[in-house]
Specification:
Blueprint: E1 2-3, H1 7-10, H2 12-20, H3 28-36, E2 43-54, H4 59-64, E3 69-78, E4 83-90, E5 100-111, E6 118-129, E7 135-146, E8 157-163, E9 187-199, E10 216-217, E11 242-253, H5 258-276, E12 289-300, E13 310-313, E14 315-318, H6 338-341, E15 345-349, E16 354-359, E17 365-377, E18 391-403, E19 416-420, H7 438-441, E20 455-462, E21 474-480, E22 500-501, E23 527-528, E24 540-544, H8 560-567, E25 571-573, H9 593-598, E26 616-617, H10 632-639, E27 655-657, H11 667-671, E28 677-689, E29 702-707, E30 715-716, E31 720-723, E32 738-743, E33 749-754, E34 756-762, H12 772-781, E35 783-790, E36 796-803, E37 814-830, E38 841-860, H13 869-872, E39 879-880, H14 896-901, H15 920-925, H16 941-956, H17 977-984, H18 987-1001, E40 1003-1010, E41 1016-1023, E42 1030-1036, E43 1041-1043, H19 1047-1057, E44 1068-1069, E45 1078-1081, E46 1086-1093, E47 1118-1119, E48 1131-1138, E49 1144-1154, E50 1161-1168, E51 1173-1178, H20 1182-1185, E52 1198-1201, E53 1207-1210, E54 1220-1225, E55 1233-1241, E56 1251-1268, E57 1273-1280, E58 1286-1292, E59 1298-1301, E60 1306-1308, ...
Parallel strand pairs: 1-19, 26-51, 27-37, 34-47, 39-41, 40-49, 50-56, 56-63, 64-71
Antiparallel strand pairs: 2-5, 2-9, 3-4, 3-6, 5-10, 6-7, 8-9, 11-15, 11-16, 11-20, 12-13, 12-17, 12-23, 14-15, 17-18, 18-25, 19-20, 21-22, 21-24, 28-32, 28-34, 28-38, 29-30, 29-31, 29-35, 31-32, 32-33, 35-36, 37-38, 37-62, 41-46, 42-45, 42-48, 43-46, 44-45, 48-49, 51-54, 52-55, 53-54, 55-56, ...
């Protein structure tokens, strides 16, 4: 047996590191702000302190203390909350030399608080010695270093000016939220600090050894880090190897006994609860009980825990008995029966071994923490009964201990280790307040103290020595079973079938618990100090659990400070006895150990996935059109409104096309149309209302539209009023269309111009060369999505789609077509599932109305603009043939700028020569016949001609005096012809110019129009120009353009594009680390290189404003401007073909022009803010996805998303089963909208998407409401003001079910708070989603949006009735129900029905005296079909609380 001393005397090295590493945590508001900004991942930073220059120091220091040394101190500071945190780093003291101090210190730290408010405060301190020998520190100035300006990565050299005063001035209230302190504090002249700040990603490998926000130098001792021979171990951190160890036979003994110890703790807690609460008759029931006993085991290096501590559940054990005791006697009296004492537990033990990993370092410690889970009842004043079953669970650390196994020569192998459990207020690595008792406060060593102390005993051995007998991890949950109370609890057994192995790759050394498990129901017996009987007489039934060990969530335990906060937090539990379900280690029988070892590393098998909720169903994919046909009376009413006609350039009405008939598409005929201009017209004429549950018959009153046509900007229309016709008599069974009319600025209706007309002009000036083919294809295949919004509440009414193929003119002057489109929306309604507790939402499509739209296309000729040659001769060939260079060098500049501009001519222009000083006089004086030189004329002819040319050029450009040169007449040096050449030519510029010219000569441009998700195939003809074989390397500077190296993929694209070229197998050679694939070419050989461009990314920019636009109403049409949005980015990609020596032999310049893509389906999803959206969308049938009927489409289905931050995938199910697309979208704050595209491919090589979905996700504030049908429930919301005052009005999606107070317009002050009252009275049971918008009525902008998640239950029925009504009787049936007032006083009652269309009351309101009866008159409407329906009748009071609920079952026969 090894008896260890107290840690204060045995672990000096760990103690030194622990004392140095103590820090102050950052403010909680700062941590929450970082989490809200999605800054959860810590990043490493390196700060290099170079030199400090202090030319002007305070005179009292420089004169009085000439031998003073100086030190630099660095601390973290949060300027928003004026809070210093972390640990102050101090440099080594040194003297000033020439008013300069060379630091050359490198600091490292890592932090996740990458906020602009997180800064470093650097202070210069003068150190001197007082007369009494103590050290005096006097501040000499300070400065502030911004770490993350605008949340960017730290980088760059900094020169910081020092400021007068002390850093304590930053705590002044006037400096709160100040970004630049230099405007408020005076700087010290000529005093600055030079430093370099940059990111250091290499720290990521050792962040578990060092806590966040701790500044350490390169020479700091960090246990677990291997020392570096260069002296800087943090520059490239190398970790020490972690060794596996096993903790076995762990027991804890508490003094004087386990029973007395726990009784004392419970008495103190109960006494504290009684002192803090008012005494009442139920005080005896307000007792605290012990829920669970836990042991935290973690490895600490003096700085932090190197891994999250493991949490084990301790079992009470009897002395001398192996096994667990399921029954422990506890009495309130001080005496106990001697017979029960033999069975009383004496110690707490661990039923299994524990695997930990240690580092062979003297400062590594194993820390043990004993933690109790207590449960206390909660009684609210609002509860009807004081005997409430709600309880709260809270955690408390009772004691702790630690062991440094490598501090000295280890002699603990195979021996039992004893540690003294510590307590009280001493600093501990847990950072917790620890329970204090007489035994835990004692710190004397065990060997010298005569007192008996709390001890923990265990054995520690390397795992390799016990590999054959190490236990395996098992996970179980314990459930109470009242039917098995008769079973003996003294020696419970666990069968083999009750154990299921679970191996978690994230937690291989033991199970862990999360605080969220405290909210579960009781699955474990409790121990109470006030129970009269045996508190552990409940037996437990062991059941298998398929839940893996739970990790601490990142938001719950980012550091020890958050863990400490979690330990002192109580969570309310709505169960009779609150408890914590736990995970534990279990010892398997000996006969199963070999079998478990064999399968320890096996991969877990995934169970079949069964979705809880039905996926979103695609709407309108298989149907050819959403168009309907109105009656003749509706059409007559529509055309009588006087809408403007669509006429051609000659004034004749455009030819009308039938929108219900198919339209042929002839691309050649459309491209050769002599009318080059297309004026595309959209006329929104009218809207037909449909009855909507929860809204009145006049809803909506005002609407607006949003849509996007081709690559024009998104259109948001102005506000339009729906006008009813009073002259036309409307039938009850038919809804006439309401004419749309624009609204003037003063709010009046513009009746002179009915409808809304939007025009888009597309001509040769708008289209790029070769784009017309794609535009015509867009019209032929595209369906334009249109959203219809309520312009007052900004709520979505519905969506529809317009087929654009009816805008093809087919050679005619002008065409038009009338569309009557259904406006659809998706409603998610869940059935009531009280028995299972699952939330099941079933989407259903609802028709909100019909939109009447007229489309047209007016052709026109463009004046003074002939047809472009690029359109007439546009080649659709996929083979790129380089142009042969047959001409010579024609002169010109060799600059890069001019070379790139000459895309057609292989020419260059010579550059001007620089005048040398020997020829200065000739240049300044000009070149003429009278000019003479001192050297031979034969040697000057070449230079003479060049000087003449150069002078002429400069005179022409007006730069005759550009060069100021001097000439010494006494020196006449003759020059040879070779020397003249070297003087007049610059070799470097010449080489660069020639290189650019040659590169341009071998460059072949190729333009392609790319759309989202579609692959563009091309073949480049590569020729070897040399007479020797070459291995050419293909290098591409953009990953979206790639070389097709797979032979099958190459063959697929050749057949798809019908490219007549040879196919060669195994053509490319791929090497690791190479710039690209390599191809072997024989001398003068030409090969076709297959290339593929495909982009899945596009621009997701959306209009920041929500609401109708404020376009001035006028009779003229609205013509949109052109812009590129929601498309792939335009770019130029360079493909270089390099020979073996690295020189390019050919260059292909691919010019990518964006082209709009086709959107087949649009979804709008609503989700709570700042949470992940996980949604499944059901794919349509395969014959609808594949245009050619590919039978293997099911096996080749794949999906891609245009946003790389969104996870999009599909799972292959059984053949014949439906398949879903699963989305995982990160959340955003309310009321943001996120838009992205999902591409669905049905071919193996993803040549072109079969479907493209546009998905909008509206993020809203979530409000959960639980209510009962027919009864009003109240809910409060908080609306916060912004920077400016606003006039706000709140709207709900179902005004008849949700009433918002205040209902009118109110003023929201800046930074103010307005409380909103919601009165919810639903009429259908189940789960539903409703919406509430707060709208700025002046700017018509959305301020805040709420998502109401209703969980509506059916009421308790008082009586049930049955009524039989004949079908098609036309009269219905009248019945009576007698109701008696159960109160003794007079009351007023209200009557409601969940089917007001089938059941009506004679009186909706009546008043009765106490005990008086009343006959309720019912009128049941008739029906045209047989069947039965259940109608609920609600009798409510004036507060809309349900008094009685009757069920009337109507049978139609």
């Amino acid at each position: 047996m090894v008896k260890t001393e107290d840690f204060s005397s045995m672990a000096d090295s760990w103690r030194d590191v622990f004392e140095r590493g103590r820090l102050i945590p950052p403010p909680g508001q700062m941590v929450r702000r970082a989490v809200d900004s999605h800054l959860t991942q810590s990043r490493g930073v390196q700060l290099t302190l170079s030199r400090l220059t202090a030319a002007h120091r305070p005179k009292e220091t420089s004169e009085a203390e000439p031998d003073a040394t100086y030190q630099l101190r660095v601390t973290f500071f949060d300027r928003n909350h004026q809070y210093f945190f972390g640990r102050t780093w101090k440099s080594s003291p040194q003297k000033m030399k020439n008013n300069k101090m060379t630091l050359n210190e490198i600091l490292y730290f890592h932090t996740s608080l990458r906020l602009p408010s997180n800064v470093l405060v650097l202070e210069l301190v003068a150190l001197s010695t007082r007369s009494d020998g103590s050290e005096q520190a006097l501040g000499q100035g300070f400065t502030v270093l911004d770490l993350f300006p605008n949340k960017t990565e730290p980088q760059g050299d900094r020169r910081l000016n020092l400021l007068h005063g002390s850093p304590r001035v930053l705590l002044h209230p006037l400096l709160k939220d100040i970004v630049d302190y230099s405007d408020h504090l005076k700087a010290i002249n000529e005093t600055h600090l030079e430093c370099v700040l940059k990111a250091h990603p290499a720290l990521a490998s050792m962040m578990h050894l060092l806590p966040e926000n701790v500044l350490v130098s390169s020479s700091e001792n960090i246990p677990g880090l291997s020392p570096s021979p260069r002296g800087d171990a943090l520059l490239k951190p190398m970790l020490l190897k972690m060794l596996p160890f096993t903790l076995s036979r762990l027991t804890i003994s508490l003094q004087p006994s386990l029973e007395a110890f726990e009784s004392q703790v419970l008495q103190l807690i109960n006494a504290d609860c009684q002192n803090t609460q008012q005494s009442s008759q139920e005080s005896s029931l307000k007792t605290v009980v012990i829920q669970e006993r836990r042991l935290h085991v973690g490895v600490h290096n003096g700085w932090c825990f190197i891994d999250t501590p493991q949490i084990m559940v301790l079992e009470p054990l009897c002395s001398g008995v192996k096994g667990r005791v399921d029954s422990v006697s506890k009495h309130n009296s001080q005496t106990k029966d001697s017979s029960a004492g033999s069975l009383a537990p004496q110690t707490l033990g661990l039923r299994s071994n524990l695997e930990i990993r240690l580092i062979n370092h003297q400062a590594i410690a194993v820390v043990f923490q004993l933690e109790y889970v207590f449960s206390a009842p909660i009684v609210r004043e609002t509860m009807l009964s004081a005997t409430s079953t709600s309880r709260a669970a809270f955690l408390q650390c009772l004691c702790w201990a630690m062991l440094c196994p490598f501090h000295e020569q280890p002699n603990w192998k195979g021996e039992e280790i004893q540690l003294v459990l510590q307590g009280g207020s001493k600093p501990n690595p847990l950072g917790l307040m620890v329970y204090s008792s007489a035994t835990t406060e004692s710190t004397a060593p065990l060997s010298t103290s005569g007192t008996v102390q709390d001890m923990i005993k265990f054995r520690l051995s390397p795992s390799s020595e016990k590999m054959t007998s190490s236990p395996k991890t098992s996970v179980r949950t314990k459930l109470d079973d009242g039917a098995r109370q008769g079973r003996s609890s003294s020696s419970p057994t666990l069968s083999q079938n009750d154990i299921h192995e679970v191996f978690s790759p994230e937690s291989p050394w033991g199970p862990k618990l999360s605080l969220s498990q405290l909210t579960a129901t009781s699955h474990y017996p409790t121990m109470s100090n006030s129970s009269s009987g045996l508190p552990w007489q409940q037996s437990s039934l062991h059941q298998p659990s398929l839940t893996a060990p739970v990790q601490w969530p990142s938001h719950a335990a980012p550091s020890l400070r958050v863990h400490r906060h979690a330990q002192n937090t109580h969570t309310e539990v709505g169960s009779v006895v609150s408890s914590v379900p736990h995970l534990e280690m279990d010892i398997q029988p000996e006969r199963d150990k070999t079998h478990l070892l064999k399968h320890e590393e096996d991969q877990l098998q995934e169970l079949p996935f069964i979705p809880v909720h039905a996926p979103v169903i695609t709407v309108g994919v298989t149907t050819p059109s959403l168009s309907t046909v109105s009656s003749r009376s509706s059409l007559a009413h529509l055309y009588s409104a006087g809408f403007p006609n669509i006429a051609d350039s000659r004034g004749q009405v455009a030819e009308v096309l039938d929108a219900t008939e198919p339209v042929p598409f002839d691309p050649h005929r459309e491209e050769m149309d002599p009318l080059r201009e297309n004026l595309l017209v959209f006329q929104f004429l009218a809207f037909t209302r449909m009855p909507v549950v929860g809204n009145g018959p006049e809803w909506p009153a005002n609407i607006y539209f949003t849509f996007q046509f081709y690559r024009f900007p998104p259109v948001t229309s102005q506000q339009l009023r729906l006008l009813n016709s009073d002259k036309v008599q409307q039938k009850a069974s038919e809804s006439l269309p309401c004419v749309l009319t624009s609204i003037n600025n003063d709010g009046s209706v513009n009746s002179d111009s009915p409808g809304l007309q939007v025009q888009f002009r597309v001509d040769d000036s708008f289209l790029k060369p070769g784009e017309k083919h794609w535009f015509l294809r867009y019209l032929a295949l595209h369906t334009m999505h249109v959203d219809i919004w309520d312009s007052e509440s900004l709520l979505l009414i519905g969506s529809t789609a317009i087929e654009l193929k009816y805008m093809l003119r087919h050679g005619k002057m002008a065409v038009q077509a009338l569309h009557e489109l259904e406006v659809l929306t998706t409603d998610y309604v869940g059935e009531e599932t009280l028995q299972t507790g699952d939330a099941s939402y079933n989407p259903s499509t609802i028709v909100r109305g019909r939109l009447h739209v007229r489309t047209g296309n007016i052709g026109g000729s463009q004046a003074n603009l002939s047809r472009r040659t690029t359109d007439r001769l546009q080649s659709h060939s996929h083979i790129i043939i380089p142009h042969e260079v047959t001409g010579g060098f024609a002169g010109g500049s060799l600059s890069t700028r001019n070379i790139l501009q000459l895309n057609v001519k292989n020419t260059a222009q010579a550059q001007r020569l620089q005048v040398q000083e020997e020829h200065g006089p000739a240049y300044r004086g000009g070149i003429n016949n009278s000019t003479s030189f001192s050297w031979e004329k034969s040697k000057l002819e070449s230079g003479h001609r060049k000087l003449q040319c150069m002078a002429a050029v400069h005179q022409k450009e007006g730069k005759k005096d550009a060069y100021k040169m001097t000439h010494d007449g006494t020196k006449d040096i003759p020059l040879t012809i070779q020397r003249s050449s070297s003087i007049f030519f610059d070799d470097i510029s010449k080489a660069e110019g020639i290189s650019n010219m040659l590169c341009h000569a071998i460059t072949t441009p190729h333009q392609l129009f790319a759309s989202l998700g579609s692959a563009e195939y091309m073949e480049f003809v590569l020729k070897n120009p040399f007479n020797s074989p070459q291995t050419v390397t293909i290098h591409i500077n953009d990953p979206e353009l790639s070389v097709i190296t797979n032979t099958k993929e190459w063959q697929y694209f050749k057949e798809l594009t019908k490219t007549p070229s040879l196919l060669e197998e195994d053509m490319f050679h791929l090497e690791e680390g190479a710039l690209g694939p390599k191809v072997y070419l024989r001398p003068k050989e030409s090969v076709h290189i297959p290339l593929k461009y495909q982009s899945f990314l596009c621009d997701h920019n959306m209009s920041s404003t929500q609401g109708p636009s404020f376009l001035p109403p006028s009779k003229s049409s609205n013509v949109a401007k052109k812009i590129v949005s929601n498309m792939v980015a335009a770019k130029t990609i360079k493909v270089s073909f390099k020979a073996e020596n690295g020189d390019p032999i050919a260059v292909c310049q691919v010019i990518v022009e964006p082209s709009p893509h086709i959107v087949d389906q649009t979804f709008r999803l609503y989700h709570p803010e700042l949470t992940f959206l996980k949604k499944a969308i059901r794919l349509p049938p395969w014959h609808a996805l594949t245009a050619v009927g590919d039978m293997n489409a099911e096996a080749n289905i794949s999906v891609r998303c245009s946003d790389p931050n969104i996870i999009c995938q599909t799972r292959m199910l059984a053949p014949g089963e439906a398949q879903d697309v699963h989305l995982k979208v990160p959340g955003s704050p309310s009321p943001n909208i996120k838009m992205f595209f999902v591409m669905i491919f049905t071919d193996k090589w993803m040549a072109a998407p079969s479907q493209i979905w546009q998905i909008y996700v509206h993020f809203m504030e979530r409000v959960d409401v639980s209510c009962i049908t027919g009864q009003r429930s109240c809910q409060s919301l908080v609306l916060r003001g912004r920077l400016a005052p606003r006039k706000v009005k709140c709207f709900s999606s179902h005004p008849q079910e949700i009433e918002v107070k205040p209902g009118g317009v109110f003023m929201l002050p800046p930074a103010g708070v307005q409380e909103l009252q919601l009165k919810v009275q639903p009429w259908r049971a189940g789960s539903r989603f409703l919406y509430v918008n707060a709208v700025d009525v002046e700017q018509t902008q959305l301020v805040t949006a709420w998502l109401l998640c209703l969980n509506v239950h059916r009421p308790v029925l008082s009586k049930a009735f049955e009524v039989c009504v004949p079908v098609s009787s036309g009269r219905g049936s009248s019945k009576k129900i007698t109701y008696v007032n159960p109160y003794t006083s007079s009351r007023t009652f209200l009557l409601h029905s969940d089917h007001p269309d089938l059941l009506q009351f004679k009186e909706d309101k009546f008043q009765l005296d106490g005990g008086e009866s009343y006959t309720i008159g019912l009128r049941v409407a008739s029906s045209q079909s047989a069947g039965s329906v259940e109608i609920l009748v609600y009798v409510n009071n004036l507060e809309e609380k349900t008094e009685e609920t009757f069920c009337v079952k109507v049978n139609y026969f």
